[in-house]
Design a protein that fits this description.
The complex is a heterodimer of chains A (201) and B (97). Chain A has 201 residues and is mostly helical. Helices cover 81% and strands 0% of the residues of chain A. The chains are: A mainly alpha (201), B alpha+beta (97).
């Protein structure tokens, strides 16, 4: 028995795990970019709100509508970037992007996310927007933890961090904005960089 | 104690290693998914899944999706534990040399 064969065994195992598990294909770079979009979006919203006449956010103003629009654009850009980069990476590895694994991953990711999104819309409709940041973090974290069952499982930790940040935001609603920036912006960049060096290198 | 004892003969084949690797990171996989990923023939894959099933390392569920028969594979707790041991043994062997 030679160690060369064992080395090949190990690389085969790693290769199969990567190929069959979709999230590994999600490039670290898309995480970094999602974080950058979130920070840019948050910076614009912050500038708009602080330079407005009131200096704070109210529900039925133009600024609020612009903020919601920014939020949607951040989400849209992140998803589109993720899809483009992941497709590119999957092609390079000769893997299929849309198969049973990725369908399961997306479906399980969307359950908490859609439920949370609807809930946030409902309470926004009732004029309670103080906890929006925290709720977004919590539901996004739950979505990540739920999706992690269908992949190698590193996103689980990102999920836990988002949930914790969300709970902190619930305790101190005044810091919701900054915790949102920390969770969606900085944590994404941090995590994306980590993934990039761990798997893409 | 020799570390060779942890090298599991049941995993000593490329296809079997592949099946276990896929099932370690996926809750389940069906026959066609395994076939696509491993590039194995039907007969070849069937004999290897049967061997792993016999050792009780994987679980096989047969069901129908519409009218099509569908076979789903997943690891058992025993299979997971044995596979982990096997990988650790492989790593130790490599590090030793």
């Amino acid at each position: 028995m030679e160690s060369k064969d064992y080395l090949k065994d190990i690389s085969d195992i790693k290769n199969m795990m990567n190929k069959s598990s979709r999230f590994i294909s999600l490039s670290g770079l898309s995480g970094i970019l999602a974080g950058v979009y979130a920070i840019i979006g948050a910076a614009i919203a912050y500038w708009l709100v602080t330079t407005s006449e009131r200096g704070y956010l109210i529900l039925d103003g133009t600024i609020f509508r612009i903020c919601v629009f920014i939020l949607l654009m951040v989400a849209l850009c992140s998803v589109v970037t993720g899809i483009i980069l992941t497709t590119k990476k999957a092609k390079k590895q000769g893997a299929k992007i849309w198969d049973a694994t990725s369908r399961r991953l997306v479906f399980n990711f969307l359950i908490p996310l859609v439920a949370g999104g609807l809930y946030i819309l409902i309470i926004l409709g009732q004029g309670k927007y103080g906890h929006t940041g925290g709720l977004m973090l919590i539901f996004y974290g739950l979505a990540l933890v739920n999706a992690s069952k269908y992949s190698i499982g590193d996103i689980k930790y990102l999920g836990f961090i988002q949930i914790i940040l969300g709970l902190i935001a619930g305790t101190f609603p005044g810091y919701g904005f900054w915790l949102w920036v920390l969770g969606f912006g900085i944590m994404h960049i941090f995590y994306g960089t980590w993934m990039h060096f761990k798997y893409d290198k | 104690m020799s570390i060779i004892t942890n090298i599991n003969k049941a995993f000593d084949h490329r296809i079997r290693l592949g099946i276990m690797s896929i099932l370690m990171v996926n809750e389940y996989a069906d026959f066609n998914m395994l076939k696509d990923l491993l590039g194995a023939t039907d007969g070849n894959l069937a004999s290897h899944t049967k061997a792993l099933e016999k050792a009780e390392y994987i679980k096989v569920e047969k069901q129908f999706i519409g009218r099509k028969p569908n076979t789903r594979y997943s690891t058992t707790a025993l299979g997971k534990a044995e596979f982990k041991k096997h990988i650790e043994a492989l790593e130790k062997l490599i590090n030793k040399q």
